[in-house]
């Protein structure tokens, strides 16, 4: 994997993490209320848009990244996002990382990585 | 809360799967891929791309509803059930091979999700959000 592919991979992890944490910040805001008012409130705050913009940028970065590596390799490398977002949730939202939660998250990451290695057969 | 999670994630994975399958159909109908206007016209000339867009919108609203309560770390992991569902549909609809390594990966993903379901049944998910989210944003200390 060349330096450009590594750069795009790290950029993808960064954008995915920022996007998901921003969505959580928007969705979990207790001031948001319920129903239609909740969606209006979220749309009026920056976090939702930080998430949307991160995702739009990530979409392009992911396509560029996949043009440099095999799809299976891309899926394998992309599985690291799960662990990084878990750590982000712990730091920013003080999500409890019980042994059972960590085991579950790591198993899902491992499973996605295995599917990545396995490729299309 | 269990019901909220169960049906929430079920709907989310259904939207995710529909999006991926629709993308694949859209790509197939527009074959061969070309970097020109004709390819764009072919992509948007079939209903599949619109199903993908509807799926994206449905996915967004479902995800934001789930995240009102769900902790982001475990919830993001669970969304990867899509890898398993897309694999199974690909075998059925596109005759893609179901190799042993892929089956093993799928089983490990499912095992991880079972662990997360157990973890949730033994905790009080409402303690994760939204108070903690508020605290993290510096609006007010959560706890």
UniProtKB/TrEMBL annotation, chain A:
BP GO annotations: lipid A biosynthetic process; lipopolysaccharide biosynthetic process
GO CC, any one term: plasma membrane
GO molecular function: transmembrane transporter activity
Alphabetic keyword roster: Cell inner membrane, Cell membrane, Lipid A biosynthesis, Lipid biosynthesis, Lipid metabolism, Lipopolysaccharide biosynthesis, Membrane, Transmembrane, Transmembrane helix
S-adenosyl-L-methionine in keyword set: no
Bilayer-crossing regions: 6-26, 47-69, 75-93, 100-119
SUPFAM superfamilies: Multidrug resistance efflux transporter EmrE
Subcellular location: Cell membrane
Topology of the protein relative to the lipid bilayer: Multi-pass membrane protein
InterPro entries (alphabetical): EamA_dom, EmrE-like, Small_drug/metabolite_transptr
Sequence ranges assigned to domain EamA in this UniProt record: 46-115
Protein name as annotated: EamA domain-containing protein
The species this protein was found in: Dyella soli
From TrEMBL, chain B:
Compartments where found: Cell membrane
Predominant location: membrane
Domain of life: Bacteria
Keywords: Cell inner membrane, Cell membrane, Lipid A biosynthesis, Lipid biosynthesis, Lipid metabolism, Lipopolysaccharide biosynthesis, Membrane, Transmembrane, Transmembrane helix
Record's GO cellular component terms: plasma membrane
Transmembrane segments: 48-67, 74-94, 100-119
One biological process term in Gene Ontology: lipid A biosynthetic process
Domain EamA: 11-116
InterPro entries found in the cross-reference section: EamA_dom, EmrE-like, Small_drug/metabolite_transptr
KW Transcription regulation (keyword) present: no
GO function terms (MF aspect): transmembrane transporter activity
Keyword Amino-acid biosynthesis included in the entry's annotation: no
Membrane topology listed for this record: Multi-pass membrane protein
Protein name (record): EamA family transporter
Organism: Dyella soli
Lineage per the UniProt record: Bacteria, Pseudomonadati, Pseudomonadota, Gammaproteobacteria, Lysobacterales
């Amino acid at each position: 994997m060349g330096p450009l592919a590594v750069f795009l991979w790290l950029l993808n992890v960064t954008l995915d993490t920022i996007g998901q944490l921003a969505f959580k910040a928007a969705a979990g805001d207790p001031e948001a209320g319920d129903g239609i008012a909740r969606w209006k409130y979220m749309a009026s705050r920056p976090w939702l848009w930080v998430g949307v913009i991160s995702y739009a940028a990530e979409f392009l970065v992911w396509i560029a990244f996949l043009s440099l590596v095999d799809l299976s390799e891309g899926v394998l490398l992309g599985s690291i996002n799960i662990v990084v977002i878990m750590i982000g949730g712990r730091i920013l939202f003080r999500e409890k990382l019980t042994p059972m939660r960590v085991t579950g998250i790591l198993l899902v990451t491992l499973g996605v990585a295995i599917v990545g290695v396995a490729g299309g057969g | 809360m269990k019901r909220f999670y169960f049906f929430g994630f079920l709907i989310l994975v259904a939207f995710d799967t529909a999006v991926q399958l629709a993308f694949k159909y859209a790509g197939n109908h527009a074959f061969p891929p070309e970097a020109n206007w004709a390819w764009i016209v072919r992509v948007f000339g079939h209903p599949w791309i619109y199903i993908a867009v509807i799926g994206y919108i449905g996915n967004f609203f479902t995800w934001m509803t789930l995240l009102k309560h769900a902790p982001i770390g475990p919830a993001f992991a669970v969304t990867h059930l899509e890898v398993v569902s897309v694999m199974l549909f690909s075998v059925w609809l596109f005759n893609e091979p179901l190799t042993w390594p892929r089956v093993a990966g799928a089983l490990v993903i499912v095992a991880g999700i079972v662990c997360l379901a157990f973890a949730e049944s033994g905790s009080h998910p409402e303690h994760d959000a939204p108070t903690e989210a508020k605290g993290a944003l510096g609006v007010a200390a959560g706890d």
